[in-house]
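Lab notebook page, bench 4
Experiment: in silico fold of construct C2
Operator: M.H.
Input chain length: 100 residues
Purpose: comparison with the prior construct
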Amino acid sequence: MAGKKPMTKAQIVSYFSKKFDLSKKAASSIIDEMAALAVAETKKAGAFTFPGIGKSVLVKRKARVGRNPATGALINIPAKTVVKIRPAKAFKDAIVPAKK
């Protein structure tokens, strides 16, 4: 894993354009639209499932008390909404097989 960099958008576009015999512009448009759809649906419905990959969900975190690691002083951490990506079981098992 060390040393190998993740694919760039340009490399993904190039891969899809060759794989599905599309122009690079069309492949790029599909990738951009998929990302825009994921953002819009997660905002609107609170979740978006990308079949075979995983699910993005909005999670509301409660307010809590934490510590400043530098001084040790107690601080109040306000409530906030965050986005989490939950990998699909098949995706996870294909990368890191389940122990038996």
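Observations: The beta strands are 47-50, 54-61, 64-67, 74-77, 80-87. The chain is about 40% helix and 30% strand.
Next step: discuss at group meeting.
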